[in-house]
Design goal:
Blueprint lengths: L8 H13 L1 H7 L11 H15 L6 H10 L6 H10 L4 H29 L4 H9 L5
Helix pairs in contact: 1-2, 1-3, 1-5, 1-6, 3-4, 6-7
Length: 138
Amino acid sequence: MQLDKLQNTNAERCFLGRSIFNLNDFVTWKSAISPDHFTDPRARAIYTAQLKVHEAGQMPDTTNVLSALHAQGEAVTLEYLFDLVKTATREIGFHAKILLDCRARRVIISKCTKVMKDVTDGGDVFQASDELKGLEIS
């Protein structure tokens, strides 16, 4: 399996840049994209801060996100956030779909690996089958 099918840090950076730059883009995608869609710990922390700032009724812009990150003990600089905004050259939906696709692949691989281990270790085949049928990807 190619690693870029499971993660795409460039798409993560571009998504974050667009979501910081444009509040409408952030609001459009915040219910579909969770922090778990990010594989880079720094990107995950930034997106988590954006969500917290927005939930607190504040604008999730660079200044407020940076304050939230520092409150969480994250060592992210304002320059880094500005660099993210500079990388955001495409429409956010393009990058969001990449993040959704990568996360879905990771979820499927994780679940299938668990089911294969259970079945190989003598687990109930029918229960394993039911687990795969109920697989939800988000």
